[in-house]
Amino acid sequence: MKISKVKGFSDILPGEVELWQFVEEKAREVFARYNFAEIRIPILEKTELFSRSLGETTDIVEKEMYTFADQDAKGSLLTLRPEGTAGVVRAYIEAELYKVEPVRRLFYLGPMFRRERPQKGRLRQFYQIGVEVLGRGDPFVDAEILLLLNDFFWLIGLDSLTLELNSLGCVQCRPRYREGLLAYLRERTGKLCPNCQRRMERNPLRVLDCKEQGCFEATRHAPSILDYLCEECRNHFTTVERLVHETRLEYRLNPRMVRGLDYYCRTTFEWTSSRLGAQNTVAAGGRYDGLVEDLGGPPTPGVGFAMGMERLTLLLEMKETQGPARPDLYLVWVGPAARSWAFPVVHRLRRRGMRVEMEGEEKSLKSQMRRADKLGVSFVLIVGDDELKRGRGILRNMDTKEQFEVSLQRVEEELLARKPVMHNENCKV
RNA sequence: GUGAGUGUAGCUCAAUUUGGUUAGAGCACUGGACUGUGGCUCCAGGGGUUGAGGGUUCAAAUCCCUUCACUCACCCCA
Q1: CA-CA distance, A58 to A29, in Å (whole number)?
Q2: Could you list the residue range(s) of the whole structural domain that residue A354 is in?
Q3: Nearest nucleotide from residue A366 CA, by C1' atom
Q4: A406 and A276 in one domain?
Q5: Is nucleic acid strand B under 7 Å from A123's C-beta?
Q6: Are residues A381 and A336 in the same domain?
Q7: Residue A76 is assigned to a structural domain of this protein
Q8: Can you give the distance from the CA of residue A4 to the C1' of nucleotide B64 in angstroms?
């Protein structure tokens, strides 16, 4: 019986991993410009961390977490992280980062786990790149990370994404809105889909997000959260909008946008693509001013986002791919004596920074050449009995088909001197 | 969790409608033509429990049942 991978988990194979590396590299580049520092946190956390931060009644906590009992005597419950923010905040509090410098600009990248039914752009182990700014409550940071994301998308060559903005208010004003909305919905219960009728009492905001035509119609003239914002929230959001506007960032105001996690407040946003199928959110985030305190830290505002690597690479695949790296040199040998000579030479070349490969088993010259060609090598060094005897190897330029002899005594120097040329040749590909 | 669709060679797919000899093709792979020189061309070769199990039949890739996997959608979300 062949062992296959777990449902919803996937391998990122050579040929596609290059795209991932490209995305990660560009992300680091942007993060550096905005002065963010990387943080690496565990993949496993105590279950409590997530149930407390995401909200007991969210879908993630209720049915999507990979949770199991630890092997200790107490049987503590552990969970594979379903998202990144909770862990970052936990680390911020636990390491008392706020004592040295309360304002922290952090980013992370790595796998997250949710036990959902897999589909396009949705896996059970999926990768996120995320950013969190802790300790700043001003609207300028909100705008700043929106711009950061925009810069990033531009840098990796992704256009045609749509930005949607909303404010969810705060603990002061959201309850008032909730009541207002609920009153409105109760008058129209009959027009809502069964699903929405059920979630109406529990989380009325969700109804606004429903894709059912009937629900959309019924809530067409529902009160807008934006009309219910308290003065502080309104000022905050107005400034975010102004800043975004001033920097020429295009966005769509969407008062119906709801976030899935309980901890969000005030500014929330979502970048979507129309080319991803049903799972069209590429990046999303918002403000979470109460979270640090909820998890036992000092009152500290926070704002951040996460983007989905699979969805990002899905979009980039449609543009172009950049194959695996090409070796600098392929050493072709003929006969055991040449092999014995070649093996340590290849090793020394590698130690000196060259990407080199050679065959181990006896293969015909032809088949070695074929493989060199397939690997996209631009230079091949050929050494057989004749060459050994004369102390001269054959160096062949695979692109120009030119070949000439090089001294085997000085072969390392000869090749290393040529390395920049080899790289240039590679770049042309 | 619910629904639909698809499973044939490493990959992309024929053959399933109407059951009928040894399940084919392209690409890829290996080798040869070119005895120590890649790509192009030509030739040859290897590779299949037709996802798995059961049933119907003289005969099953094809029809029926069960099961598994994958995909897409609902839901939910990055």
Answers
A1: 34
A2: 329-428
A3: B37
A4: no
A5: yes
A6: yes
A7: yes
A8: 30
Is residue A83's beta carbon less than 7 angstroms from any atom in nucleic acid strand B? yes
Per the document, the length of chain A is 429
Distances in Å between the Cα of A425 and the Cα atoms of A109, A326, A377, A400 are 34, 10, 9, 11
How do residues A169-218 score in pLDDT, each as one tens digit? 998 898 899 888 888 888 888 777 777 777 777 778 888 877 777 777 78
Domain match, A266 and A366 both:
no
The CB-based long-range contact list for A153-156 (8 Å cut-off, 24+ gap) reads A153/A271, A155/A26, A155/A29, A155/A30, A156/A22, A156/A23, A156/A26, A156/A312, A156/A316
**Strand B bases contacted by the protein (CB, 7 Å):** 1-3, 29-32, 34-39, 69-78
- Residues (307-346, chain A) with CB within 7 Å of strand B atoms: 307-308, 310-311, 334
Maximum Cα–Cα distance for chain A, whole Å? 97
In three-state secondary structure terms, A19 is: helix
Q: Confirm whether any atom of chain B, the nucleic acid strand, is less than 7 Å from CB of A403.
A: yes
Last residue of a domain, one of A275, A293, A317: A317
Residue A359 Cβ under 7 A from any strand B atom: no
**Together in a domain, A167 and A264:** yes
The model's pTM is: 0.90
- Rounded to whole angstroms, the distance from the CA of residue A366 to the C1' of nucleotide B47 is 23
Question: What is the domain count for chain A?
Answer: 2
User: For position A370, which CATH number holds?
Assistant: 3.40.50.800
Q: In what order do the strands lie in the sheet with A125-134?
A: A37-38, A104-113, A125-134, A302-308, A281-287, A265-272, A162-167, A252-253
pLDDT at A90 over 50: yes
ipTM: 0.87
Q: Does one domain contain both A280 and A235?
A: yes
| CA A369 / C1′ B44 distance in Å | 21
Find the Å distance, CA of residue A354 to C1' of nucleotide B24.
Answer: 46
Claim to verify: residue A148 and residue A68 sit in the same structural domain: yes
Tell which of A290, A317, A344 closes a domain: A317
The strand B neighbours among A residues 242-261, by Cβ under 7 Å, are 258-261
A365/B46 CA-to-C1' distance in Å:
21
Query: Which nucleotide's C1' sits nearest to the alpha carbon of A59?
Result: B76
Q: State how far the Cα of A415 lies from the Cα of A233, in Å rounded to an integer.
A: 65
- Indicate yes or no: strand B within 7 A of the C-beta of A164: no
Residues A277 and A336 both lie in one domain: no
Per the domain annotation, does A200 fall within a domain?
no
pLDDT at site A322: 64
| A221 CB contact with strand B at below 7 Å | no
In a shared domain, residues A364 and A245: no
